[in-house]
# Entry
Amino acid sequence: MKVLANDGISKSGILALEKGGFEVITTKVAQEQVANFVNENNVSVVLVRSATKVRKDIIDACPGLKIIGRGGVGMDNIDVDYAKSKGIHVINTPASSSESVAELVFAHLFSGVRFLHDSNRNMPLEGDTNFDGLKKAYANGIELRGKTLGVIGIGRIGQATAKMALGLGMKVIAADMFIPQVDVKVEFFDGQSITTTIISQSLESLFKEADFITLHVPAQDGYIIGEKELAIMKDGVGIVNCARGGVIDEVALVKALDSGKVLFAGLDVFENEPTPEMTILMNHKISMTPHIGAATGEAQDRIGTELASQIISILG
# Structure
C-alpha cells in the first residue's frame, strides 16, 4: 500500500512504514492536484501537516482513501467528521510536539522580556556606532521568575508549557472550559519530581491576574483576545500565541502594543498565513516565527514514528 506524505515525514517515520510493508511517497503535490495524484497512484493513506487541506472535495474524489493522518495536534485543515462518515480513519499525533511548542513559547517569552527580537535587528545596524544608546534602550529587562503565567487551554501543550513555567519559578494559572483541574508533574533529570494541581478559572480573572499570557487552543469561530479582553489585562502584559492564527484580533493587538498596554507579543501563527499583515511584520514589539512550533528534529521523529505505528495497526 502507498502512503503520500504530502507535507513531509521524518526519516524514522519512513523507515518504520517501509518496515511495515508500505511504500512512502514524499513528492510535494499542489493542493489542487492532490485528488488526481491519490487516484492515479492508488494511494491509500494521505499524511499532512498544516499546509495541505483535505476537505470534502478530496474525500469525495478519492474512494480508495483509507486513512488521513495529521502530523501534529489541530485538525482544522481536515473535514474530520465527513471523512469518518465515509469510513475513512482520521489520525493525528497530539502528544508528539508538546515539548517543542512549549519551548518555543519560552523562546518568545525570553525574547520579549529581554528585547532580543529587536536588539537582534538593531545590533548589526547600529552596534558599532550606537552601542551605548542600544545598551540604554534595552536596559529595562524583566525576569520571568516570580511572575504569573496565564495559560489559556491546559491540554497537553498547555501542560508542557506550565511545567516549564513552574521549573522557572513562575506562578501558573489556567482557563479551560473543558478541563476543570489538572495535576501537573514536573520531572527532573535525576528521577525526582514534584506534582502540583492547577485549577481552571474564568478567562476574565486570568486576563486581570496574568503578567504573561500564552494560548493553547484549537481554531475558533471568533477571537479569544480582542479589544475588550486587552482592556482588562494588566498594563505591560506580554502575550504569546503558538497555537492557531485567528484567536487574537491582530488590529486590536497592534493598537495595544502601540499604546504600551501590551509590552510585547510573540507570534508563531497569524490571521493571514502565509502572508501576515505588514503592520505585524514591521512591529518592533513583536517576536515572530513562521509557524514552526513543532519543527524540531525530536518532535518530527516522534510524529513520524507515531503516525507509522497507527497506520500499521489499522492497515497492517
Notes: The chain has a mean pLDDT of 97. The longest helix spans residues 297-315. The two ends are 10 Å apart (CA to CA).
